[in-house]
Structures
1.
Amino acid sequence: MAAQNPVVPPKVADGKLRGFDLTGRRAIIYGAETSVGRALVETFREAGATVGVTSASSQGDALFALKKVAAGGPSEAVDLGNGTNVQVATKKLVKDLGGLDIAVVAPDTYLAQPLAKTSDADLATVISGNLTATYNAFRSASKELAGKTEDGRLLAVLSGLALRGLPNVSAYAAAQAGVIGLVRALSQELGGRGVTTNALVAGWMLETPGRGADEINDNLLQRYIPARRFGRPEDLALLAVYLCSNASGYVNGHVVSVDGGALKHL
Amino acid sequence: MLERLSMAGKNVIITGAGRGLGKQMALALADAGADIVCAARTPEQIEETATEIRERGRRALAIPTDVASSDAVDLLVQTAIEEWGRIDVMIANAGGGGKASLKDVTEISNEDWYDTVDINFSSVFFCSRAIIPHFREQGGGVIINVASGTGMRGDPRLIVYGSSKAGVVTFTMSVANQVARDNIRINCIVPGFVLQKTLESEDEISATRSRGRFIPTQRVGEAWELGPLALYLASDASSYLTGEAFVIDGGGLAGGFAPSGWDVTAGVGGLGS
């Protein structure tokens, strides 16, 4: 069961800092074949975690990228929209890892299309690739976490479109925003068992398709960001480590945006 | 990547550093290599924090300061810079419930109002105004303000305190937009209920557990839990984070639509037929 007060501050491994030590902790990163996924895997390992990964889709390109990001660690090719598939992959990875403390999902099935042109199939794909994917991963992972670990962690890595509107991204924005509802609900449902659920929202990234010119004077989007630069995967990595450590148990249901200030404009 | 967390060679001012959250933030930053200027009204308490920091092999100064006075805050910053040459991080943590707590809105006097606003909100403005010229001159810096969950929702017992803390959140977002181009980051921490002292008696532990039942994590927060978060926000690990209100409240604000423990599986919920 969850810790009760008083809570003993966790000890840390040599040379590590409290809140940033994942020594002995086991993590699955779902949908890891992106640049953000790669940064998370590398940083979690640097912080001492044992990491398994899944792909977001089971198509050819994704599999190649998955093996690369797994770097010899356990990996499973899945279609995250398929609940059974995710359940089986989770069980296999948990067996390899010897248990589970952390599940991170970075869903990103993107679609830029006007409302009127978005077909039933388009909508289903985008909902499945973002909302259903995260739901499936959290559901499978929570069965391995709840009651078995005092410091279970669920973390969704999302886009700023989970929080804000833009024209021609209705399906993606709705699906990503749905994940925030999921995070808030699970924070209430699982919090008492020592499992926290949070979301990390990324701002405009260097890798964002269509972000525009490299030179800031030619890039209106870049000038919109108070920090006047695009985000990089490594900007998210240490916050993810903190949110998945055994010292962040009182951060629950929070949606934190790493955005160079872009979401704090009027 | 983990080297980004290092605070070695960085100087930090923390107000309200004599106890509770401020003290724990000070110790966590010192553990990461920072030297700390401890400010608060009570000299004995900040001396104690300073001693613990020195025991960790770091430098510490204790400067008694009433943060509700802009002159005192200006002097704090000036003294710290004179002593150590530069300051890299300013944590405006000091605050308090004030005399307006628990009163009916019509019974809050002007004095109650201004006292509470000054200690919780004006103090944050004074800290930023005093340190930003220095940060601009040296090419950057970090500000961390401490707000409160009472600044995000209504609490009839804490009308002025909550309003002041809401001000801290908006101040943080607004200033973040203004100073980002000077390489200055400003964020705030939004704590929910957090224990400020060590639990000693069985009665205290039992009362704390009862309170914890109203929080989704089924426990209240403890002051040490603010340390790692402050370290993240103060260090280069968070170099792309600004204007953020970082909530650490066990999930209280993510809920709050029904009483704690409300069971919707009994068929309650949705918009109805």
2.
Amino acid sequence: MSAIQPPAEIVWWKQPLDRVEGTWIAIALTWSLIMFFMMPFWHIYGKQNLSNEAYRTTPQAFLAKTQAMVDEYTVRTETAANLPVVRPPPGSDVYLVGRLWQWWPLLEFEKGQTYRLHISSMDWQHGFSLQPVNINTQILPGYEMVLTVTPDTSGEQTIICNEFCGIGHHTMLGKIYVTEGGQ
Amino acid sequence: MSAELFRTCPESGLQFHKPAERLMKAHAVASIVFLLIGGVGALLVTLTRWPAVHLLPADRFYQLLTMHGVDMLIFWLITFEIAVLYFCSSTLLKCRLATPKIAWLGFALMMIGMVVNNLAVMNGDASVMMTSYVPMPANPNFYLGLILFAVGALIGCFVFLGTLVIAKEEKTYEGSIPLVTFGALTACIIAVFTIASGAIILIPTYLWSIGYINHIDPAMYRLIWWALGHSSQQINVAAHVAVWYAIAAIVFGARPLSEKVSRTAFFLYIAFLQLASAHHLLVDPGLSSEWKIFNTSYAMYLAVLASMVHGLTVPGSIEVAQRAKGLTNGLFEWLRKAPWSNPIFSGMFISLVGFGFIGGISGVIMGTEQINIIIHNTIYVPGHFHATVVIGTTLAFMSLTYFLIPTLFRKQVMFPGLVKWQPYLFGFGMAVFTLAMMGAGTLGVERRHWDMAFTDSMLGFDYPASAYTFMGIVGISGTAAVIGGAIFVLVTVLSVFFGKPVDSESAWGFTTSRVLRAEPIVVPEGGHAAAGKWGFAAPGTFLLAIFFLVIFVIYYVINWKYLASVWPIS
């Protein structure tokens, strides 16, 4: 009886396993268990884990904190729109706003130092995609996500929006400049 | 129950209940129209993401990408799946279909929903992608169309369940339902869960869009929406695995290696696949690692295990059937001498291999909590799901259609010479397409993005040249696959409406097996294993499975290494 007909044996659940099936199930289950243990393992021994640290916020409250940081630590402005470039002290809380259609402000970090990067959206959902290092997270309005990052390469990183956010989505960029330590 | 309500297909021996037959035909034809509309979208979207062509302006691109996603992932697949549900209940159980009139009501609601949704997208104020993440607003009819369609599909699910009850009550079969019907039941149960989740989130979102509710929490939206968005893909998986088993039975008269294993694997889908939807939220704020790991490991890996089991038992059952026919030389004579020019078989086998090797492996990699950081929302993601939903589900449904044209529609398949090549063009085109997308995604190229050169941005960013090469390959191979899809739509529509009637099996255009008249496979002395090697009934399949595992392990390790090179985050 084929698979499109009722099973030939009425009590099909007593039919013994073929050896090929039993062997494969054992191998596949073992592999699944290895993959399961890899995730907790990486939480203990790996260096790339999301923190789970997140807070409820409002666009107004988050923008106010970002503005305060911009007022205090802006070192220069860039482009015709005079976008502020902010160089916060190492170890500090850094705020990044995602809104239609920019990541604001531009940031400057020091290589090898650790920063608490808070990110939230002022309007719709956005995607934080840092390239070329390739770190991607989801950014929601009303939620403040905290990433504790330690840049270990210097140079220019670009923040791209990778969650569709309307007609200007493909122009939504930001920058994180990473300078060599000791400057 | 009058006898003239039933028709027996003289070649296949399948018994069709006429009201069910008309419903199956309507659903199949409608779904192929949706495939055609979605396919036009596919071509235009592909030609826009091909950097050298960059065809559409930005607003049209986002509009057509929305249309392509919804028409393919929801309307094409679910409409065809309702036809599969009716086939697996009424036809395979030789039973009358429950409440055909209510089934027509379901069909009408699905059609109205599809039209309402598509008109909203065409109107230009619903370019919100299939996911329609709040608080980005869409024309209310976008949600309304989806809700109407879902209600119609839910009616179809209950008609299927009602038919199972009737079949049991009227004793149209003995013992348990066939494995393929069991797979369809799995798809149906997942569909009911999916549609319920969709109602829970889309009805409030509709009310929000017309102003009755003032706030929908975006994190809650994502959590519940993905119980719709990913679970609907699990309907596809359960349905196309059932179709694989059906085609193995149709072409080879294959019987499952063991009913117990295959049915347990289907049951694992019901129990665990829905929780695995959580892997869409791996880099979302506000969810704990424990929650993410539970849902994507305990839950997802047990479902992955089920797919790995089906991946062995489907070709394994074919190998056993072929060996029983005397193709016992070496490890792979059974496969070498399989009917590779029969599109019913070739499409199904390419679907199986593509789904497992490309879609399956990439899906598990993406669903790993930390590795998701380097993949989330890059074009790697559509690379993955085109391998599962297009190579896996769509190609399996195409193969089944080549069987249904002569049996259900009673028409000869036109252009058999061309049809022979169609699964290869479509399958291999999509395989290159998906692999190139994954290559580009690994380099950080974004999905749902009109311009990878960022020409209109104040700041600018340059992807490496290799990313452009990958996207060029995406454009070329995507176009090839669209041509393969167009051949399918053309051949099916022409055959169904203008084809010559079938008078004998030799007029089918290609050989199929005798389906229900197939003699049972004779189990050789000493069980199946005697025809195999090493005490294995299907040694060739086992070797292929080990090959699969080796690639899986290597690629898994490579991705952890890549992750380790990223900036430390905690």
